[in-house]
Amino acid sequence: MLIASxxxxxxxxxxxxxxVFEPVSERAxxxxxxxxQAIFVADKENRSDPARAEFFDEGNLYTFLKGLERxxxxxxxxxxxxxxxxxxxxxxxxxxxxxxxxDSFLGGLQAGRTDDVAGIVNNALxxxxxxxxxxxxxxxxxxxxxxxxxxxxxxESRPSGVLSTSVVFxxxxxxxxxxxxxxxxxxxxxxxxxxxxLMVRGSHRPTSLAALGLIGSVSAALGSAYIDNAxxxxxxxxxxxxxxTVAVRSIVTMVRSLPR
Length: 260
Hints:
Layout: H1 2-18, H2 27-40, H3 53-56, H4 62-71, H5 75-92, H6 97-109, H7 117-126, H8 132-136, H9 140-155, H10 170-175, H11 180-197, H12 205-223, H13 230-256
Helix pairs in contact: 2-5, 6-12, 11-12, 11-13, 12-13
């Protein structure tokens, strides 16, 4: 009920500000981000295709967005332009919105096909304490407007946190910066275990069902915008793996208690 109430309240706010009744602020922007990632990050072979070079835009998905936002202040008009560009990009990549949504949903069940967590962490690790400018721009405000924008935000009592990791964990972080294949296997195995556990009676079934409902609903919501980035799926995936472990333990305990 609380989540539904918040979604409705946010929808009213977005309707007042942008003229669209939906809980996600500037959803079209998220869809472009997800669609671009699906075509050029999840499938990197598309980057070298000349027919898709216009959409790859030298590897910067924000060039199109920022140009559009400067040229067109009306969000409803921007939505139409973004939708048309996404359709054109999918057509150039020989795919469709339905297929990409389905692929993103399945990717969500495997903890995400794309993952920019490593890049964010590495940027923080590489910024030395002496590099004050680098430290100041390790946030969305700094990346968008540079150091002056960060200082203005701080002066307006809107401090921006700095993502940082202790030097102790530097080597560990480098070692596991690309763990997507292992993560996908673990996540998919967890989902399969939970599905299998539903066929066995026991106290684990409600928690297994709840975990499957969580990862399924989150993957579906993200998939509707073609997104399955690992940083958005970290929480649900962790819950799936924990509940899968609980289910296995419960089933093993139940089997051991059976009379022989």
